[in-house]
Amino acid sequence: MLNPTYPIKTPRLLLRPFTMDDLDELHSFHSRPDVVRYLPWDARTYDGTRAALETKLGQAALSAENGTFNIAVELRETGALIGDIFLFWRSPEHRQGEIGFAFHPDYHGQGLAFEASREILRLGFDDLGLHRIYGRCDARNDASARLMERLGMRREAHLVENELFKGEWGDELIYAMLRREWTPAA
Q1: pTM for the full predicted model
Q2: Which whole-number Å values give the CA distances from 73 to 12, 28, 102, 170, in the listed order?
Q3: Can you tell me the distance from the alpha carbon of 37 to that of 6, in angstroms, rounded to the nearest whole number?
Q4: Exposed/middle/buried for 122, CB within 10 Å: 0-12, 13-18, 19+?
Q5: Spatial distance between the Cα atoms of 132 and 112, rounded to a whole number of angstroms
Q6: How far is CA 131 from CA 6, 93, 137, in A?
Q7: Segment 71-87, tens digit of pLDDT
């Protein structure tokens, strides 16, 4: 079970449960084709973002019954919602999790996704007791691949044309880290 005390504070961010007040800011990046290019959904309409947000409202704690942990990433300085970060509990038996993220492009290149992702890895390893956390990305998604490498995750696989993704065959990269490889200091 993972049910942290909120907000979770990092030097520049607050990680917290989503609220319906996040709708406009979440839509500001979930509706962008450049943001969702490598994500499993298409650019969302306002109603589509609302439906996704309604689901996210129940994902601020993680249990075997609710295998998705999904929280908002807020910039402490301004209170702006800048990202959407996930931890999927893929196998309680084998203590496996999967990390995922989506950030507004206005905040790319500042180390904010790294800062939020490090905290999600900490929660997964230290609080949930996971043995292995992995991340997947389209092989063309250089930014996500670089982020996972910067987090200390190792590239374990390059799957060639393994998935029909948005109408075309795509390659997928898989990165992972084991609990014993996790170092809490950045």
Answers
A1: 0.95
A2: 10, 14, 10, 29
A3: 31
A4: middle
A5: 23
A6: 24, 10, 21
A7: 999 999 999 999 999 99
